[in-house]
Amino acid sequence: MRRVLALLGLALGPVLVLGVFFVLPVAGMVARGFWPGGGFDPGGVLEVLTRPRTGRVVWFTVWSSAVATVVSVLLGLPAAYALHRLDLPLRRVVRAALLVPFVLPTVVVGVAFRQLLGEAGPLGGLGLDGTPVAIVAGLAFFNVAVVVRSVGAAWESLDPRPAEAAAALGASPAQVLRTVTLPALRPAVVSAASVVFLFCATSFGVVLTLGGLRYSSVETEIYLLTTNLLDLPAAAALSVVQLVAITALLALAARLRTVPDPTVARRTARPRAVRRSDWPQVAATLVLLLLVAAPIGTLVLGSLRVDDAWSLGNYRALQSTGDGALLVPVTEALVTSLRTAVDATWMSLLLGLVVAVVVTRRSRTPAERRVRSVLDGFFMLPLGVSAVTLGFGFLITLDRPPLDLRDSGLLVPVAQALVALPLVVRTIVPVLAGVDDRQRQAAASLGAGPLRTLATVDLPVVWRPLLAAAGFAFAASLGEFGATSFLARDDRATVPVVIFRLIGSPGAMNYGMALAASVVLAATTAVVMLAVERLRVPSLGVL
Amino acid sequence: MRSVRALASVLLVGAIGTATTSCSLAGGDDEGDRERAAADEVVLVTHESFTLPDEVLAAFEEESGYRLEVRSAGDAGALTNRLVLTKDDPVGDVAFGIDNTFASRALDEGVVADTDVERPAGAGAYDLEGEGGDDLVPVDTGNVCVNVDDTWFRREGVEPPRSLEDLTEPAYRDLLVVPGATTSSPGLAFLLATVAEYGDEWPGYWERLVANGAKLVDGWSDAYQVDFTQGGGKGDRPVVVSYDSSPAFTVDGEGGTTTSALLDTCFRQVEYAGVLEGAANPEGGEELLEFLLTPEVQAALPDSMYVFPVRDDVDLPADWARFAQQPDAPYAVDPAEIAENRDTWLREWTDVTTR
């Protein structure tokens, strides 16, 4: 009982944060749907569920996200291996580059994809513009980095000895992969896949731009119902459907990722030289790199054209406010973005670490285990709620003391931290869960206090994934658009918000600036990621 | 030993993080500023396209003595719905950017407070009819019109279309791109233009339009910047739904423009501003309304927000005066009728176009 209390005490901080900044606003919006005009009237909500359109929208969301998740995992796994276990030249650069799509604002990627796939584009002959194939490709483009990074981090800290033993006993590489490596990686793969699925299922811009209005997902439908039709009962109905579906998915994922034998030895494989047998993985990585580079290449080329000639004019213009389209220059927005991202990163790391420690400690009773798994799922929920619901919810619930936060400058980093939190938790938890609890017990019996145990047993295993998580959180924050566009104050606009405004304004100048700003955002991310990668160099030889 | 090194690196990262953070949190927020009394500031709630030159905004602060704070998000629809949702505790003092397609919802929901603002020359013509209509002050206007790429039609030797009906002719097959009515405000305006022209028969018109290869995309930037032949991305469709001011942005540097707006296909949008019911600073709000109608703001509108001033006594920028022609008799639909039917029309439109 005392353990459960201690557990709840530790979880109290993150739970409070999530309660105020997530549960309260979302509940506020859903309540408006169930109590239209003051009286409880669930009839309107139920009626929405029987509309044929609702069924179509839900079905499209499920299958397109599922296909995109499978594609992301299939493309991501070989690259995770090649980039984290093999001593490839430039692998750090490639790893950083693969994270770039993750931060690009969807509106820009939509434009880049459509220039590539559109009737006039180089791939126009394929006739993919406005088809589900384009949507799936766009979703995979955004999310493959999640698979590469989180599975890669786990692969890296995977003890290579069992696989070597299997190989020494005569197992073929395929057998080793199937019987030793994949089972050990399963928690990480399932974690990554469930995050990717959630990102896909709640993706807004990709479906809207690439689907050519013919396809609606739950997320675009909620946006339309809320901002255009003000049909709050219908929006509430879909929000509830979304939440229920995501809770079910999380429960399923939790079952799938349970580790058969939770013993991760603290030994990290040194990346080894590329052998002939590694060529398929290396080739697959190159293909992935090409796929990711194509839309980005379109952006870079476009940003270097002014009046049909090569020029850096678009980049020079970033110090200005465009043709009057902006209130602050792009350079200033970049500073705001970086500051906000730093805040969001430490917030999500702090929350994420506490959550991860809480949910991975060994449970002594079934009740305790249940509490832990409920908490685990609870912190994934922010991924499953529409940004517009959250944005409007902030406005109507956080408006009176003691929670008068509507105008607080903290709102944006907190919202972004919540978006990044599931990524952080899902990156750290599989690794922490793999630590044999007996190691902690041994440390404790040798006289180490809880903090000392944490430092000597958990930290050495978790610090790599922690850095990976920091990278994710930073990138997610830099690229976040949905909630930020709702909450950011005009004098504190972030780069994605600014890009969105530029691309929505007439004039070749504004268009060129939007492309240039996207390239700068992409480059900034790549540089930050490289820095994160470099940070781990000094201790690589020791660990 | 290993773990000590590892711990050290984690601490290092943490330290760097904290160092950058402390400057970001400390330098990033001026919480102290917000302590000042609400009476000293005016909060303007608006949509994401709102901008005015710095010196104009500074002039307001100078003349009135109020500090001006601008909060923007979403388009005209999102703005109006945000005001409706927060009407018990408004997010600001003044709203700008409610247009004639959403004005009735704002008025019906009692979002706007009574005001008495004198209209300058020409502005009165844009006033809303009906009870409380004069509480919303017209600030700017613009028309959503079909635009054509003149260079393309000259090169192909084809006569450009002139009317809505022309767009369904086989000669213009696969040439038109339209932003969606459900997802963009020019798209909604274009839908209303067809409602004004065809009455109850408009779904039939859209069926013919779609059958003639009209391409639907999600927003203005997608239609104009990606698919239009004269947009940023050089697409391959020479006919697009855009604004009457768009030709002023495609000047060819040789004294001409490469596109023109079809003035018989236009729907007029008017943007209004009003003091919010329950505002903390209604007097300051009213001063801001009056300021929005001054010649200096009105003259800055074209370059800042790509719209025409409602005053008829301010000069337009040179390119505008030459290339941005306004239609004499644009299509119009009564705001009350829009309010009543908008949702039905949008659902019907979705059914017709995504069949």
Describe the model.
The complex is a heterodimer of chains A (543) and B (355). With 543 residues, chain A is mainly alpha-helical. Chain A is 72% helix and 1% strand. Chain A has helices at 2-34, 43-49, 52-85, 91-98, 100-103, 106-117, 132-156, 161-168, 173-201, 205-210, 218-228, 232-256, 279-303, 313-316, 330-360, 366-378, 387-397, 411-433, 437-445, 450-479, 482-487, 495-503, 508-535, and strands at 305-306, 309-310. Chain A has a two-stranded antiparallel ribbon with strand order 1-2. Chain A is globular. The two termini of chain A are 38 Å apart. Chain B is an alpha/beta fold. Chain B contains twelve helices and ten strands. In chain B, helix 2 (54-64) links the parallel strand 1 and strand 2. Mean pLDDT of chain B is 85; it is low at 1-8, 19-23 and 25-36. At the A-B interface, helix 6, helix 11, helix 15, helix 17 and helix 20 of A face helix 1, strand 2, helix 3, strand 6 and helix 8 of B.
Give a concise summary.
The complex is a heterodimer of chains A (543) and B (355). By secondary structure, chain A is mainly alpha-helical.
Number of DSSP E strands of chain A = 2
How big a fraction of the residues of chain B is strand? 15-25%
Largest sheet of chain A, if any?
2 strands, antiparallel
Q: Give the helix/strand class of chain A.
A: mainly alpha
Chain oligomer state: heterodimer
Distance between the termini of chain B: 68 Å
Describe the structure using short key phrases.
heterodimer, A: 543 residues, mainly alpha, 23 helices, 2 strands, B: 355 residues, alpha/beta, 12 helices, 39% helix, globular, disordered N terminus
